[in-house]
Automatic annotation (TrEMBL):
Keywords: Cell membrane, Lipoprotein, Membrane, Methylation, Prenylation. It is found in: Cell membrane. The keyword Cell membrane applies. The lineage of its organism: Eukaryota, Viridiplantae, Streptophyta, Embryophyta, Tracheophyta. Residues 7-73 form the Ubiquitin-like domain. May serve as docking site to facilitate the association of other proteins to the plasma membrane. This is Membrane-anchored ubiquitin-fold protein. Signal peptide: none annotated. SUPFAM superfamilies: Ubiquitin-like. PANTHER family: MEMBRANE-ANCHORED UBIQUITIN-FOLD PROTEIN 4, UBIQUITIN-LIKE PROTEIN 3 HCG-1 PROTEIN. InterPro entries: MUB (IPR017000), Ubiquitin-like_dom (IPR000626), Ubiquitin-like_domsf (IPR029071), UBL3-like (IPR040015), UBL3-like_ubiquitin_dom (IPR039540). One of its GO terms (cellular component) is plasma membrane. It is a lipid-anchor. It comes from Musa balbisiana (Banana).
């Protein structure tokens, strides 16, 4: 793989620590990056993503789409080739409804009117 096809990335976690820097092919997709982040995630962290959809990658102020490649996500201003690109990682665990949450939603809603006299 030619040297110019490699991009050096590091991922900044919520607490300011980093994963990387690691060199990736510019044809790598965001979904591939997320899988790598999950596999390299420090186990001592309080918040740990379980699947790729739990992770959001932000670069140059934009949330990156899973289907895009690194080359498509590069900032239009461009970075000097020798620099490491920092992407921010946000963990948003997917919401799964628990049984108690379902029961609350299934209860019939009572309409109530309240008046306040000032």
């Amino acid at each position: 793989m030619p040297e110019e096809d490699l991009v050096e990335l590091k991922f900044r976690l919520y607490d300011g620590s980093d994963i990387g820097p690691i060199r990736y092919s510019s044809s790598s997709t965001v979904a591939m990056l997320k899988e790598r982040i999950i596999s390299e995630w420090p186990r001592d962290k309080k918040i740990v993503p379980k699947v790729a959809n739990d992770v959001k990658l932000i670069s140059a102020g934009k949330i990156l789409e899973n289907s895009k490649t690194i080359a498509q996500c590069r900032s239009p201003f461009g970075e000097p080739p020798a620099d490491v690109i920092t992407m921010h990682v946000v963990v948003q665990p997917s919401l799964t409804k628990t049984k108690t949450e379902k029961k609350v939603e299934e209860l019939p809603k009572k309409t109530a009117c309240s008046c306040s006299i000032l």
